[in-house]
Structure formats: structure tokens, C-alpha cells
Amino acid sequence: MESKRNITDLPLEILDLLFGYCGDSTNKVYLAVTHPYLVQGFVYHCRNSIEYLYFNAEISLSFWRTILPVCGSYIKGIVRCIANNIDDHAELSDLISLHCTKLEKIKLFFVMDDISWVKSLICQVQSTLRDIELKVLLNKMNSKMLHEFPELPLLERLCIFNIPVDNYYHIRKFENLVELQIGCSDIGIDIDILVLCAPLKKLRIMHLRDVRIIATEQNEVHLSVIPLEELLLSGCEILIEFPACFKLKTIDLMDNVEKNVGALEQLIFSQERSLESLSFERFLNNEIFIDIIQSFPKLRYLYLPVLNVKIDLEFVRQIVDILRGNGVTPKNPFVLKVNQYNRKYKHLLRWLKFISHPELIKRIVCSTPISRFLS
Q1: Are 285 and 315 in contact (CB under 8 A)?
Q2: What is the pLDDT of residues 319-362, one digit of tens each?
Q3: N or C: which end of the chain has fewer CB atoms below 10 A?
Q4: For 5-22, what is each residue's pLDDT tens digit?
Q5: Is 104 within 8 Å of 131 (Cβ atoms)?
Q6: Full 3-state SS string of the chain
Q7: Is the pTM of the predicted complex or chain greater than 0.90?
């Protein structure tokens, strides 16, 4: 009588197909960890394709001792939630640094305050690291880590959340940064972005969330010397006057402190004619709406969750005439994004039917704004 067969009796080629139906790498790991032979199947399946791994705390360290020596050279990014068991973290970071020789991205979430091993990991992979995300899920973070990091010559993207920034040099030393994101769970970090960013000549993208933007000293540093192309401010308090950024293409201003309205409008209208995309949550009257599309002839995207202008036929005609003068075409339309529940949106749709070239305005509706911070 022939013995019963199960999944562990299947050849690796068949296991390869089964792992293909598991979806993301996390599901594949959950299957592989159930049996040593399935570990072999996982390695066989991922040998040429695996690039990003999520290190789930529920998966034993012994599994990674088996997997990383075989797959580590293919891995370019890791995601890890840091909780308890410091010994496991230390050994795992040693395994990562030893076997993940092409590691470019590290994304860590902290639910503990002891991060002594993080420096060791980052120091050991500094020759390949291009992208770091560090997010503390605690209300307060006592440990300071940025000053522990080396200069990281290849680092292009740094995102930190709820991590103290007590010395700008700890960020300014990353001279090749292209993207910088700083945030906290409430307004508890003061940032002088003029001083912070002056040495970062390659910086193109800056996102700030729930920080207080201040001027710490009188100096001749101007943001215009930084070739920023994208600026996102969310939940911030702005205590400075923004200078012009000559290459700025995208401004995203959402959920900011109410008393900032004047500062936000000043920020918008002080920019050069290079602006292509604007997201602005404040109420705009007809005059300001017209000023925006007249001031920025390259503007092709405008997100106004609250559309509060008075919309009539003459106003819509004026908008379309300005857009035609700005070079807007049906193939390169002006995108207007508004909240789907705004009744003024229905007025816009109605009057567009009575004008020529309504196709110059592409309408997009949404229910809620989407945060792009630490995305």
C-alpha cells in the first residue's frame, strides 16, 4: 500500500509554483517557516527575484539564519518593527550586514527606546545604503541616534518621525540627500529649514509634518540657493517668511495651523513661474483663484478640497481663457481636484457645458486627502 504524500514531498519546481500564488513576501515566509523543506522551496522560489523582506517579529531567528546566507545577496531593502528581545535584534543585524551585501534601503519602526544596535547595522552597510526610514511609535523618544550615524556617502533619502533633531549637523552631514522628511506626532520639533538645508546642494524634495518652522538667527542663507522641486508642509506652524525657490515645481500645503493662512499665501505667491502643482486646503475667493492661475502659467494641477469660490458662467469663461493663454491643451489639460461632497463642484460641471473648450479642465473628485508623508 502506497504511503500518503503531502506538500513536503513535492519537487522544488512545484513548490516554486505554489509560492507564486502566495502573494507578497510576508505570506511566502509564513508558509516557508512551517517546515525545513519548505524553507528550501522558499529559497528556490526567491533565488532570483527577492529584493525586499519584512522581518516579522513572529518569525524565529533560526529561520533567518537559514534564509539570509542563501538569499541575502539579492535583498535590496528590509522592513523591521523593533520591539523586545535586544539579543535577537543584535544577531539579526549581524546576519543582515554579513549576507545582504547589496542592501540599499532600511525601514525601521520602533516601539522601544533602546536602539543601541541600529548604529552597528547602519555602519556595517554604509557603503551601499541609499534610503533610510526611521519611525518611532512611542509618544516620546529619549534615545538620540542621528549623531551616531556615519556620513553615509550614498544616502539620498532620509525620513525620520518622532526622532529628536538636536543638532542640524547630524542631518547636514548627509551631503548627497535628494529627499528629506521630518515629522512628529505633535508640534514638538523646531526646524530652521534655511540653516538646515543650506549645505544640501542636491536636495530636491522636502516634507515636514507637525513641526514649527522658525528662524534661529539672522543670516544671509536663502532657500533659493537650494534647488528644491517639491515642498510638502502638513500640520506645521510657520513663523518665517519663505523666500522664492527658483526651481520649485510642487507645493503641498495641507492641515496646517489656522493662523498660518497669511504665511501660506505668501509662500505660494513668492515662488517663481516654475510651479506646476499646488495643493492648498484653505478657502480661496475668486480673486485669489484667478491670481494663482495667472501667476503660474506652468500650473497643471490644483488640489482644492474646499472649493469656496463663487462659480458662474463668466468666472468659468475667464478661467478657460487664462488656461488657453497658459498653453493648456486637451492633451495636457489643467487638472482640478476637489472634494466630491462640495456643492460648488456641481456648479462648475454645469457651466462647463456652456463654454468652448471645456476639455481644457480635467476634473478629479476625491473623498479625503491622502498623506504622502513616509509613504
Answers
A1: no
A2: 999 999 999 999 999 998 887 666 777 778 888 888 888 888 88
A3: N
A4: 788 888 888 888 898 888
A5: yes
A6: CCCCCCHHHCCHHHHHHHHHCCCCHHHHHHHHCCCHHHHHHHHHHHCCCCCEEEECCCCCHHHHHHHHHHHHHHCCEEEEEECCCHHHHHHHHHHHHHHCCCCCEEEEEECCCCCHHHHHHHHHCCCCCCEEEEEECCCCCCCCCHHHCCCCCCCCEEEEECCCCCCCHHHHCCCCCCEEEEECCCCCCEECHHHHHCCCCCCCEEEEECCEECCCCCCCCCHHHCCCCEEEEECCEECCCCCCCCCCCEEEEECCCHHHHHHHHHHHHCCCCCCCEEEECCCCCHHHHHHHHHHCCCCCEEEECCCCCCCCHHHHHHHHHHHHHCCCECCECEEEEEECCCHHHHHHHHHHCCCCCHHHEEEEEECCCCCCCCC
A7: no
* Topology at the third CATH level for domain 50-177: 3.80.10
